[in-house]
Amino acid sequence: MPRTWSKWVVSFLFAGLLGGGCKNPFKSEEPTKQRIRILMNNEYLVDTGRYVAYWDGKNADGNYIAAGKYIVLLEAKDFSDQAYVTAEEGGKPGANNQQQVELGFYSRYALEPPYPNPFKILSGVNIPFLVPQAGRVKISIYKD
Fold it and tell me: What DSSP string runs through 31-80?
């Protein structure tokens, strides 16, 4: 077996064992989910660290959403992951806003659980995620 062929096979198997990143959960399904809003649209993040994005509970038209279950989708480079969050009636506008950046070094992208969950619609929800290298990040909200 030529040396380049064996390197390819070892690399392929090694990537498969480690997972090699997550696949977009929406690519394997029929596009039945309704996108409500894009929070970050391929924004270029220079610093590595832990980011907390804030969703104010509004849709793309600027109106508050209805109570129910929603999907948060994070996409960055070849990584994507999703988390679920439940919206309930009530709250005080902006009460949960904890938007921030904590610089640090991480080995992989990660979408952490949104908090609080469930959240009061008017108060909004925080969406924490890890960024291991400079690159573009997209966060979308879908109705489940």
Answer: S-PEEEEEEEEEEEE-S-EEEEEEE-SB-TTSPBPPSEEEEEEEEETTEE
Q: Which helix (H) or strand (E) holds 100?
A: strand 100-103
Give the bridge partners for 86, in sequence order: 69
**Domain extent listing, the chain:** 24-143
Q: What are the pLDDT tens digits along the chain (144 aa)?
A: 444 444 433 333 333 334 444 445 455 444 568 999 999 999 999 999 999 999 999 999 999 999 999 999 999 999 999 999 999 999 999 999 999 999 999 999 999 999 999 999 999 999 999 999 999 999 999 999
Q: What is the DSSP letter of 136?
A: E
Whole-angstrom Cα Rg for the chain:
18
- For the question of whether the overall pTM of this predicted structure is more than 0.90, the answer is no
Give the span between the Cα atoms of 35 and 71, in whole angstroms: 9
